[in-house]
Task: structure prediction
Amino acid sequence: MSYPYQIKSLEQYHQVYRESIENPEAFWTTIAEHFRWKQNPERTLQWNFKDPEVKWFEGGTLNITENCLDRWAETQPHTAALIWESNDPEEHHRILSYKELLFKVNQFSNVLKNNGAKKGDRICIYMPMVPELAIAVLACARIGAIHSVVFGGFSAQSIADRINDAQCNIVITADGGYRGNKEIPLKNVIDDALVQCPSVQRVIVLTRTRIPVSMIKGRDTWWEDEIRKVETSGNPFVQAEEMKAEDPLFILYTSGSTGKPKGVVHSCAGYMIYTNYTFVNVFQYQPGELHFCTADIGWITGHSYILYGPLSAGATSLMFEGIPTWPDAGRFWDIVDKFKVNILYTAPTAIRSLMVFGTELIDRHDLSSLKVLGSVGEPINEEAWHWFDQHIGKGRCPIVDTWWQTETGGIMISNLAGITPQKPAHATYPLPGVQPILVDEQGNKIPGGDASALVLPSETISGNLCIQFPWPSIIRTTYGDHERCRTTYFSTYDHLYFTGDGCLRDAEGNYRITGRVDDVLNVSGHRIGTAEVENAINMHTGVVESAIVGYPHDIKGQGIYAYVIFNGHIPDKNLVAQDIHQTVSRIIGAIAKPDKIQFVSALPKTRSGKIMRRILRKIAEGDVDNLGDISTLFDPAVVEEIKMNRL
Ligand code: PRX
Result:
């Protein structure tokens, strides 16, 4: 096995990049030839960013699981597809070869069919990080059902909203899950959610922690019982459903600047080709290497770089159930040493949380198998970059700083490991086929900001990051509401996809993402909408109004600072703050709990009633002497009070 489209030199990168923008269709047509199609595509691309409508590889039909499983089960059946490491270092790890994984996916595809699942159905998956999660996801893809994986940290209410939005008819879950020293009662959370979800007819429950759970007759069934039924009925092989290139593959919900999360929809063919292409090129994967992405499959990083990218390349992917700091902060280094990991792809927040423990736990392990390190999810600060380089990569592993989003499906701007130059804290160059452009607030192109123009700026420039041409895994729609997709991404600037990120570009052409320019926070690499958190806080009976802003946080990157107007006397601030935490945990999930809650008598508002977040942000950041013009406020005095009581 080799990857003929793997770029091997800087010169080749420049040449391929040029070809990809001069003739994108020819470029992607050639790449698409390396996949297994049932019917070959007839037309490579049809698009406009106005509606928006983007169609890649039309006329083509395929099933992504034949590309991720069958073709490797035929040519390299005994190669490990997945290696699973438990939360508990004492529990034995599991290895599934391509042949075994295909078998298990077939088995579970039968289970889904036996439980009434059909092509096009939406299936919600709320599971711990065990191999059965991967199996469930791939089984959905095999039968053409659209998976909607919900991260195990979301609350019952969040799950219910997502299930109802997509009208899921089946839920796949587990009794519970392990995370560090905690047990998460997943099935109980699902039971709470399902009170509000009339569309769900079947719940398939895997045994993991074996905590007592309620099993409702006619609705709930055990995973293991269902597998047994399939086993007794003979050969489990399931013909992979023939999917059109543009049929939806999955929905993944993500936060935006408005209250309700959006269901980002990705398509079968474009998503497959792009995640494969970027996996092979960014990480410079070589056959036989072991790729360890530390994300949870509940996020896009897990979808694209634990499952679809690596598996479509016939790679070996390591999935880890636990957290970096349990039983101690050497867990990642244990795993790297134990399995001889070659590629480690993680998040700046994880790196920062491990930096504080010093190097003793690292020095106990042999990390010499590592070849490539990767970072994703938020801007990586230079200190974390250098620590990662020096202590983990020992100065000899390239670090890829990969910028992308749930909506982009795969990595958009990143150096290619060891091939194109790296620069600390810079995502650097666009991938072939990606045409980033920087614009000002009015949408004017900033000279030197357009990668496709092949002209470098004379000095570092700054603007809002947009993409001006489709790539195969671009978001197709927001589930059930195409207009929302248009207004969120394609209406801010004419004919451009707007990322929501601010960005710099230096005179060498390196892009450096500076963070969100909208009301979206990035907490520990997770996207959290301020409006969503405010809505949750406002549901607490005593709360009149609230405003959320982000502030720099040493480990999380951004912390959540809440300003809350409470109704009447607050007997015990601590207790009320805890109540508010509970409310947010119930409505969204523990990941959205504010780090700081300041009770205020009023919020700084303009005369027209708009909250001036700029001021609140400055105060939260501790920049209280630099608030700018506050004369337009309805009541400037409130600023003094807020400043004085700052936490
Ligand atoms: O602000 C950018 C930041 O994460 C956002 C996307 O979040 P999400 O859809 O949850 O996907 C995260 C994993 C792909 C972006 O808009 N972001 C992601 N990667 C980077 C980054 N910011 C800077 N540098 C990165 N490498």
